[in-house]
């Protein structure tokens, strides 16, 4: 028996209501804030990610699905949505539109991770990006959108974690100071995990969010990014906090927040699921990436964005026992007995659908009991039963599936009766 590959899942009909719910809330949110939809391919040139996310990040070093196609081109299944959006922005000249350009996407993302609750090899991201302006009011807009999205889903147990990691000018100095801190502590305590030993040389910022207990101890006493920001980055972070405070948005300052991708500058933020959750990691995260478009060959184009993992949101909805609207089910099931009645049933189903009544019609030659069992399983409100007698009298039995009450009505009046009910 074949099974879906490890870390991927089928979304069965019973689960689809959650997906529709989250997608609809995502789309209404984006409409409310003036973000336009953009879809990019699942496949991209692998360098789009290796150049923008940089080596030294888990995503590039360990998690990308990379392969050569039959033409020998190295492609990757997209591990995230921001770089593809920036690629599309450049490829289609969206820089010639009034800036910032506000875009959103919903789509599958692939990372070769160790599967566990809330961590999969294929997951679905909802993300939005505002490209073309450095104003911290845009950072505030994106953070508020992320928060309001979760609230619109009915989720309330979450926190917004915020930090600023500086820019090309101030971050290198901070990296050096951080490296010194870890090297000094490690020479006394010798507790850095093997991953962090490598990070120390290649990507010291990532030392701050290592989950290993002994590395975490060293991170607690590490110098803070915000104490090393240049005046422009400090002012940017300050004004962002002022916008959030004007709007009454609470957040937690987290000096260890650096994010798992390497393109961030200045603002970084994450939405954490709050206490008592069984799942791994953030519900969503984002930040500013002012150099990414320039790294892809464009002009300097500051930008900011956010993405949330839809599976994690759905797990959280279930955890918080939030009830969601069910998907619409067909209204009526048509059952029949005998071949003449079958012809009439098929004709009636066709007519009912023509007038917009969602209808399932039986097939084959099952007993009436089996047919009604099927109607019951699908939760239709009514069943129409047609047998030999009904054909002769040009009538049909209308059965209310909840009460079991039955009524004989003229065949020609089935649609009218169902509409009036
Ligand atoms: P990210 O934090 O790597 O950021 O991913 C965004 C969200 O996707 C995470 O917060 C999490 O909810 C979900 N996620 C990530 N990996 C998995 C996984 N293996 N299984 C299930 N869910 C997962 C980005 O990807 C950035 N592109 C976000 C961004 C947009 N930054 C600026 N604009």
Tell me about this structure.
By secondary structure, this protein is of the alpha+beta class. The protein has 3 domains: 249 residues, Bira Bifunctional Protein, Domain 2 (BirA Bifunctional Protein, domain 2); 51 residues, no CATH class; 89 residues, Rossmann fold. 40% of the residues lie in helices and 20% in strands. It has 15 helices and 16 strands. The strands form 3 sheets. Strands 1-5-6-11-10-9-7-8 form an 8-stranded mixed sheet, with helices on both faces. Strands 13-12-14-15-16 form a 5-stranded mixed sheet, sandwiched between helices. α12 links the parallel β12 and β13. α1 packs antiparallel against α5 and α5 runs parallel beside α9. The longest helix has 20 residues. The chain starts with 12 loop residues before the first helix and ends with a helix. The site of histidyl-adenosine monophosphate has 28 residues, from β6, β10, β11 and α11.
**CATH-assigned fold name of the largest domain:** BirA Bifunctional Protein, domain 2
Low-pLDDT sequence parts: none
N-end to C-end Cα span: 46 Å
- The CATH class of the largest domain, by name, is Alpha Beta
**Major sheet:** 8 strands, mixed
CATH superfamily of the largest domain, by name, is: Bira Bifunctional Protein, Domain 2
Work out the radius of gyration: 28 Å
Number of helical elements: 15
Specify the structural class.
Answer: alpha+beta
Q: What value does the average pLDDT take?
A: 94
Strand order of the largest sheet: 1-5-6-11-10-9-7-8
| CATH architecture field of the largest domain | 2-Layer Sandwich
- DSSP strand content: 15-25%
């Amino acid at each position: 028996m074949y099974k879906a590959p490890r870390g991927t899942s089928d979304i069965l009909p019973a689960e689809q209501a959650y997906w529709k719910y989250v997608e609809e809330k995502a789309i209404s949110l984006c409409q409310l804030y003036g973000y336009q939809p953009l879809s990019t391919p699942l496949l991209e040139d692998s360098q789009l990610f290796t150049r923008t996310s940089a080596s030294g990040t888990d995503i590039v070093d360990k998690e990308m699905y990379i392969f050569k196609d039959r033409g020998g081109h190295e492609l990757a299944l997209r591990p995230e949505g921001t770089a593809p959006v920036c690629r599309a922005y450049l490829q289609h000249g969206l820089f010639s539109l009034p800036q910032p350009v506000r875009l959103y996407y919903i789509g599958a993302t692939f990372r070769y991770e160790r599967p566990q609750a809330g961590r999969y090899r294929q997951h679905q991201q909802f993300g939005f990006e505002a490209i073309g302006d450095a104003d911290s009011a845009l950072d505030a807009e994106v953070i508020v959108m992320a928060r309001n999205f979760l609230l619109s889903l009915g989720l309330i147990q979450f926190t917004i974690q915020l930090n600023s990691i500086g820019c090309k000018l101030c971050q290198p100095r901070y990296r050096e100071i951080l490296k010194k801190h870890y090297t000094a502590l490690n020479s006394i305590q010798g507790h850095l995990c093997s991953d962090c030993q490598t990070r120390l040389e290649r990507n010291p910022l990532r030392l701050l969010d290592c989950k290993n207990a002994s590395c975490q101890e060293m991170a607690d006493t590490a110098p803070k990014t915000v104490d090393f920001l240049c005046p422009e980055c400090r002012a940017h972070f300050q004004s962002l906090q002022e916008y959030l405070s004007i709007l009454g948005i609470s957040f937690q300052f987290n000096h260890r927040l650096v994010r798992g991708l390497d393109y961030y500058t200045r603002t970084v933020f994450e939405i954490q699921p709050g206490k008592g959750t069984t799942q791994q990691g953030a519900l969503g995260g984002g930040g500013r990436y002012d150099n990414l478009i320039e790294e892809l060959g464009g002009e300097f184009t500051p930008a900011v964005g956010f993405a949330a993992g839809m599976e994690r949101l759905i797990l959280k909805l279930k955890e918080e026992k939030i009830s969601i609207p069910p998907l619409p089910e067909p209204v009526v099931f048509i059952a029949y007995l005998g071949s003449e009645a079958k012809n009439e049933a098929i004709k009636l189903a066709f007519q009912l659908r023509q007038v917009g009544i969602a209808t399932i019609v039986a097939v084959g030659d099952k007993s009436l009991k089996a047919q009604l069992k099927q109607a019951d399983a699908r939760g239709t409100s009514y069943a129409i039963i047609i047998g030999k007698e009904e054909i002769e009298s040009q009538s049909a039995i209308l059965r209310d599936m909840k009460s079991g009450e039955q009524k004989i009505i003229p065949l020609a009046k089935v649609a009218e009766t169902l509409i009036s009910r």
